Amino acid sequence: MTTSDWKKMLKQLEVKPEKLNKFLKHNKPKDRKFGKITKKCRRCGTMKGNIARFGLNLCRRCFREVATDIGFKKYS
To answer: For domain 33-76, which architecture applies?
Structure first.
C-alpha cells in the first residue's frame, strides 16, 4: 500500500473510530529506528546521497550549494 492510499483510507475512516483503530493496528507503516530511510536531508528532505559526517545531514546536491557558506573550501 502506498502512502497516498494509506492517507486516503485515514480520511475515509475518521468518522468510524472503531474501524480506524483496527485499520491503524494492522496497516500503519513501521517507525524506523535505523537504516537509509531514517536519514534525511535537512534542506530538501531527500534520502539519497546523504552526507551525515560532521553532523551535516545534507544530501550531496544541497551540500554543493551551501558548502562555501558553511566554510568548506575546494582545494583541487
So the answer is: Irregular (4.10)
